[in-house]
């Protein structure tokens, strides 16, 4: 009997503690923040994991990030259950109007989507936009095709069927890649278009960046698109791609940074694919952290709002940006940092600036 | 006489041959069905044993940069899965705290009122509960707890999702065990003037202890490896987190996280091995309890 009573007491006290914690959050605006939570894109997750761990260590504030995909990040913010979300595809005007509050976009770093392949002998390959269209639309089906050889004189191209590998799940990586393809190929734009999940004309599907990278590594003759980090970490060869200026560009920290050399709108919602920059890698993109302009929502305290602002300012600051290239992303260009700082200064708590 | 004897001898030989053939076939098939488990264990040990050292249990998961640097120097990836181990213990412990009392009470009710519309309805519902996919429970916990109660991802929400998963096995094992206890035991207690509720708590429950605790431990080991509901509720955390209203990590979540980061992929094996060992130990514990506490009537 005593044991049962003890158990009951334990259950009741737990429910009391949790409900107190919740109501306390709602009533006491001055309550100290112990942790911040963000969720979303997996493409920049290696970068986020690294810098948030540094932040937790140096500032003593626990920052939790969950890689649940760009769509999940947007939904979590919509449900008001995170301090910030993360996405690789910025919210369209229509999506913005569906959100329950004003949403700010803060670019956090630049990344590249690469065309990675598995051919015996690992020849270095160059692709023109026409070759990209031909391969990914299934018009070029063998690696020894004359069109590939023409662009890659001297490369040892085997008689091997091309297997295209694409993402089966909705993904920001697919969006960036198809956005680029739509810009360089009118046929692609018409038949397939740009989006997070597409109807692919040829190839096999794999789940997530790790799935595509794994399938490429395991399949001779395979080619697919993945976040650059996944190719570099597993040393899968990647192609140089011809940009608008006509130069063949290898994906690298410098060439991705160069892609962001053009103008950036004040809300930073811009695609960088098919850049006009001479040395820019054409399949580059910002990735964003998204948050509400008005920070007093769902019982968040003023301290929590200020901590969120401080964290985001730190992310776009030098200490965090310097780490981007170490994990194969590129740092934000200076004007993006300036604009992002301005956007962060718009944050309010109960209508008053932070 | 002689010929009859030889016929029966021949028959006997035929029968012995049949018996042997059959047992060989059965043994082969049993071995084949155990083969996947053996090969999984072999793979995990082969790929994961390097990671298993003291640090693996007391340090939190490394970040990408640490792993990259270690890989470049051909060292073992530093860090461990302490945040996952602590998170799993908290989430599973809390889930047990919710599910065990509820499951026991429901099981007792079902065994005491084995007939009747209400009991049949409850039994049906419990059986259906067993078939609910775990991801659906994650969505439910997201709607019940994540959005309204903790206004964010939390260990508590994960526990609620997992506790619902645990319920059916606890209820069923409690019911079945209590039903097996001879009614004379109950009658004896009641005839001595012991109140009904004391009869249940002092006589029936202790007698059925081995069966009930086996059900509980099997329920725990069923939920300890769940990932899908936790992705929607507990989210994961890079640090050890004792606050149940905040996001928390768990070993299955870490395995998923490692899979998503190309630099951390090597850690999958070690983490899986630890998870498998924990569940293995729980199952062995269940077996030991049955052996030790089995009450003979």
From TrEMBL, chain A:
The keyword Signal applies. Pfam families: PBP_like_2. One of its GO terms (biological process) is phosphate ion transmembrane transport. One of its GO terms (cellular component) is ATP-binding cassette (ABC) transporter complex. GO terms for molecular function: phosphate ion binding. The keyword Signal applies. Residues 33-318 form the PBP domain. Keywords: Phosphate transport, Signal, Transport. Residues 1-20 form the signal peptide. Belongs to the PstS family. The complex is composed of two ATP-binding proteins (PstB), two transmembrane proteins (PstC and PstA) and a solute-binding protein (PstS). Part of the ABC transporter complex PstSACB involved in phosphate import. This is Phosphate-binding protein. The lineage of its organism: Bacteria, Pseudomonadati, Bacteroidota, Bacteroidia, Marinilabiliales.
UniProtKB/TrEMBL annotation, chain B:
It comes from the Bacteria. The chain crosses the membrane at residues 21-45, 85-110, 122-145, 151-171, 203-224, 267-286. SUPFAM superfamilies: MetI-like. One of its GO terms (molecular function) is phosphate transmembrane transporter activity. Residues 85-286 form the ABC transmembrane type-1 domain. InterPro entries: MetI-like, MetI-like_sf, Phosphate_PstA, Phosphate_transprt_permease. GO terms for cellular component: plasma membrane. PROSITE patterns: ABC_TM1. GO terms for biological process: phosphate ion transmembrane transport. It is found in: Cell membrane. It is a multi-pass membrane protein. The keyword NADP does not apply. Keywords: Cell membrane, Membrane, Phosphate transport, Transmembrane, Transmembrane helix, Transport. Belongs to the binding-protein-dependent transport system permease family. CysTW subfamily. This is Phosphate transport system permease protein PstA. It comes from Ancylomarina subtilis.
